[in-house]
Amino acid sequence: MVGNRKDGPPKHEMVHFAGLLRNERRFGDFRTVLHTGLYSQLVAMEVPVGGDIGDEVHTVDQILLFTSGKGLATVAGKDQEVQAGDVVVVPAGTQHQFVTRGDQPLELITVYSPAEHAARTVHKTKEEGDIEEDEGKDEAPTWSRKSKKENEDAGLVKLSGNYDNE
After folding, report:
1. Which of 135, 109, 115, 129 is nearest to 30 (CA)?
2. Measured in whole angstroms, how far is the alpha carbon of residue 77 from the centre of its chain?
3. Model confidence pLDDT, tens digit, residues 59-84
4. What pTM was computed for the model?
5. 122-132 pLDDT, tens digit each
6. CA separation (Å) from 84 to 16, 67, 75, 157?
7. Alpha-carbon gap, residue 16 to 1, rounded angstroms
8. Which domain of life does the UniProt lineage start with (predicted)?
9. DSSP letters for 41-64
10. Contacts 24+ apart (CB under 8 A), 79-86
11. What average pLDDT does the chain have?
12. Is residue 73 part of a domain?
């Protein structure tokens, strides 16, 4: 699998997910982290028929790009029907819930900024994910929560773009 799924900052190279946003994906798992960067995280989700992601609030920003299926988004108490091709932005600290509607799973790609989950996270089901989160086993890597200044001081981000030691 392409993307940074290790417990360490990513290399300074392109990460390309061919066809990731095409319709009719079939991710299979409820949640799979695809890539964790210094300031963001890319995650694929498949919410089963009759399922939901859970009523939640994150301390990070979240952008959801719907690739297949239909659902109901509830953000800050406002309902909105969603379908493939739609995008929903959930600002940090905002209550949200997404529920599958219809006879197909609701599939989406979500971007968290900064990261929300462990870099190697794969949850087959929502219940599995809830247990790991409750037990503190699905926490974002500490390196993904550092400030811009901390990353610059550590040499992880250079305006020169020169990383000869990688």
Report:
1. 129
2. 22
3. 999 999 999 999 999 999 999 999 99
4. 0.93
5. 999 999 999 99
6. 21, 4, 18, 35
7. 10
8. Eukaryota
9. EEEEEEEPTT-B--SB--SSEEEE
10. 82/106, 84/23
11. 94
12. yes
CB 108 within 8 Å of CB 96: no
What span, in angstroms and rounded, lies between the C-alpha atoms of 42 and 40? 7
Q: Report how many domains make up the chain.
A: 1
Q: Is residue 155 part of a domain?
A: no
Residue 100 domain boundaries = 31-136
The CA angle 73-5-1, to the nearest 5 degrees, is 90
Mean pLDDT, range 139-159, rounded to an integer: 94
DSSP tally for the chain: helices H, then strands E: 2, 9
Tokens of 116: 């929300």
Please report the pLDDT score of residue 123 as a whole number: 97
What CATH number is attached to the domain comprising 91? 2.60.120.10
User: In sequence order, what are the residues at sequence separation of 6 or more whose Cβ sits closer than 8 angstroms to the Cβ of residue 1?
Assistant: 34
